[in-house]
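Tutorial sheet, problem 5. The two components below are modelled jointly, 571 residues in total.
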Amino acid sequence: MRKGLFYGLLFTSPAILGFVLFTLGPMVASLALSLTDYNVFKEQTSFVGLTNYAKLFSGEDELFYQSLGVTFYFVALRVPAVIVISFVVALLLNMNVKGRAFFRTIIYLPSIVPAVASAMIWMWLLNPDLGLINSALRWLHLPTSNWLYSEGSVIPSVVLTTLWGIGGTVIIFLAGLSGIPKPYYEAIEVDGGGWYSKLRHITIPMVTPTIFFNTVMAIIGSFQVFNEAYILTQGGPNNRSLFYVFYLWRTAFRDTEMGYASALAWVLFVIILFFTYIVFRTSKSWVYYEGGERA
Amino acid sequence: MRPSKLALTAGYTALILISALFVIPFVWLLRSSLMDLSQIFTMPPEWIPKPFHWDNFRRALTTLPFGTFFTNTFVIVIGVLVGTVATSSIAAFGFARIPWRGREAVFAVLMSGMMLPAAVTMIPSFLGWKALGFYDTYYPLIVPAYFGGGIFNIFLLRQFYLTIPRDFDEAAFVDGATYFQIYARIILPLSRSVLIVVALFSFLGTWNDFMGPLIYLKSDRLFTLALGLQMFQGTYSAQWDLLMAASAAVVLPCVVVFLIGQRYFLEGITLTGLKG
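Model answer (structure tokens):
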């Protein structure tokens, strides 16, 4: 096929141009900005070297460590919850039960609800005095909670609201589960193994690539949570839900400290890269690829 | 595999319980949106509005100019959708069906961009659009869609194009077809369903976007539904009846679009996960 290179570049040029204009360019610019004290309302901008980064790590900016702690706590709580619950729900959906498509629709539907609307619904459900959840708990004579309004429970509450939207992860698990060849299970049955053997020796090993994919996506997504922080809590109470990207946004667009905020952005990027790398590194020991192919 | 009757019953029960948990927020949304304040606050909670206050919707949607917000959102959604579908499918064709040196490397570089947190590009992009005089306009929200429509969509389409047999192209080549003809006459007609997937994802992604409009739009008259709803909440924080009616009105179009295109959605997500 002649002129492959010319046509190849011609067809892909919008995408390549878009990458340069909206990803690579801003990325380089962001790194450059992070080395300056750029502030929209200041007359002069000067090159300050690594001062912004030094300020971050010196402990001078307590909110940086606060937001980092909040975000790590959120990731540590949310990622395992998303993976375990999605997997269990997918296992249930994978049974050959009547109305499977109906259940699947119900589970997936919340994940298409706009974040703002979802936040409104959950604020109302979790309202300490009049919300449904506390009413139900009172009715069951169980202890109630202040949910989003108390320092100890705010992060678990935000995790809870995001679990409503795990539908996409469930569907990906379901696709992984349906790819497992039936004869594998029959082999276990011949050997007299029950559901536990099947789960332990076939289902889980066979879906490890899907677990891997979903874990990476959940980590990347959880580190960047913003809408919930902005709409549900505005970082409160007492900065206990000061999510990293919310703090970054506030620094850049409310305090207009865009140089400093760019440094915050790069620290986040490195953190996400680091965790993704860790998951990739460990994946060799726990992700099973049929036919021995690697990711 | 054939689970035992007991296991099946237990699983069925669990499935019904979990589904109930997923549905309750919707029911709570709907019932609150149709009640007056006094009934909303009754303890223990009531589930059936008495009487049905359909009026809440009119009140909620006229308190703020939701009609304008709806039109604004629609304009942005259509702008993004057209750009995304057109340019992502062209780019995906270049990555899947035209052999050229460096193709895989370029694709890998573009894919690596997905790892980059939006927070990194957010500030310089904002400053760039502002310098061009496009702050508080729709350009920053729409124009990027015309440059490839997002690498995720290109990835999705490429996955699909790779599954179309090569013989088609080669036969067309022998007949003297150009790449443009192959794209337009062979690949596009075969990929209707996956293009619908991309259109649906792009619709929802834009409809639901909060951070983009938050950063780039300042004037109320340009606000999207997401921003409008957030503004509503700031102003009428304890008016749960109106707040829920407004929320329901924002959710409804998404649900309708999803139910219509359901089959395509599930296909699309599966396409992402399987070969990723």
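Marking note: The radius of gyration of chain A is 24 Å. Full credit if you identified this.
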